[in-house]
Amino acid sequence: MRLSGSNLALHYEDVVVARDLSIEIPDGQVSVLIGPNGSGKSTLLRALSRLLKPKEGAVVLDGKAIEQYSTKEVARRLAILPQVLVAPESITVAELVAYGRFPQRRSIGGMTDEDRAAIEWAMRVTGMLDLRDRGVDHLSGGQRQRAWIALVLAQGTDLILLDEPTTFLDIAYQLEVLELLRHLNEAEGKTIVMVLHDINMACEYSHRLFALRDGKLIAQGDPRVVLTSTLIREVFGIDAHILEHPTSHAPMCVPIAVPHAVDHSPVPAPA
């Protein structure tokens, strides 16, 4: 499943997010987009999934411009999990996951055995089978995120895009979600593309890192090669030590506090 963008100009009305941005997603790997707020990560992900039409340039999916596919055809090839997720009120896990089958279903007729098998598999691989009858609004944060990932899996695509899938989760749930995505890549052959804010998590769980700033791709490649103190300074504007993780040997970023970055002098109380 090949996905790329070439010479993309990305705008929100009159706001220019990126110009002449090109990217090629490696098939069968986990790719992570990193960069400061406003660098264009989520906008690029939206463009790659056809949720945002570029002003210039082209997104190519499986050798064909993505705009030439119908919405349903795109949904049969790639799935995207956006940052903001709102489930219908009182819906159960099984009912939520079933929504993932809509792109695969015929325009008429009910659910097929293939649909049911895909839903069952998606809940099993995400560890949600025992919670299938639980209301989504009664799940913990990590369980809720796994339910949404199960919906994406039920869609049956080999390419999955996720916008900050660990946002608002504590460290245990973050690891749970990222381990699940790693399993989907290694055991199920899924190509994963995601936006992450945590640089160390990005290095730990990715094969390829894409670093953006101001809508430009500053660096890309194996995290062990790409992540340097020079890159951190260029992309995030801070100094940092780059260390090696003691067990995985992935690079780790340890920021250096900037002296006098914040004025700590006393502020008089209002009269």
Description:
The chain is built from nine helices and twelve strands. The chain is an alpha/beta fold. The strands form three sheets. Strands 6-7-8-3-9-10 form a six-stranded mixed beta sheet, with helices on both faces. A four-stranded antiparallel beta sheet has the order 2-1-4-5, with helices on one face. A two-stranded antiparallel ribbon has the order 11-12. A hairpin with a 2-residue loop joins strand 9 and strand 10. The longest helix is centred in the middle third of the chain and has 18 residues, at 171-188. The relative contact order is 0.16.
Fold blueprint:
Blueprint: E1 3-12, E2 15-25, E3 30-34, H1 41-48, E4 56-61, E5 64-65, H2 71-77, E6 78-81, H3 93-98, H4 113-125, H5 141-154, E7 159-163, H6 171-188, E8 191-195, H7 199-205, E9 208-213, E10 216-221, H8 223-226, H9 229-236, E11 240-244, E12 251-255
Helix pairs in contact: 4-5, 5-6
